[in-house]
Amino acid sequence: MSESLRLLVCHQCKTADPVPWCGEEAQCHHPLCNDTLNARMESHYTDSGHSHQVSLAAIDKEAWATQRGRDEILKQAMEVGGGSFTPVLGQEMYEVGQNYEVEAIACWKQHGKPGSAHKYSCEDYMSDKKTLLADTRAERKEAGLSTRQANRTGTKLCQFCPYNSTVMQRVRADKGFYDFKG
User: How many whole angstroms separate alpha carbon 79 and alpha carbon 63?
Assistant: First the structure.
């Protein structure tokens, strides 16, 4: 699965939000593509449940990674929809998210590519040591809070890993949403 991006443009809210995409089919059914898109779409409905006027366009990931490219993409989105658009994710947030994906892919490879045909599971999946936490030990200690990772909640690196989609497919299959043999 190659890494591409789509831009979710809401003409009503005047926002433009990049979402991951496998780059394969416009209507693919990959969890990474659909789950993220559906999560972003949640804020683009009226109180009566009708969708805002939105557009979804494939964009060049490398162009979006540069300020100049991002400005050009947003300019084109404005021409189509009229008005001005505000990116939902700032540059810093976007780069951090990409760093997590890079780290997750490296971890996935280090663990022998779990979820693939030759390896069924990952022994570190969602373990405490995979929790993404800011280094606030000194501040937490000063405030009298626990500095142990196990006592803190947070996002896990595993949520950015390809194996997570296999786990989600198994969960959905167990709930009867569809058949999955993996």
Answer: 18
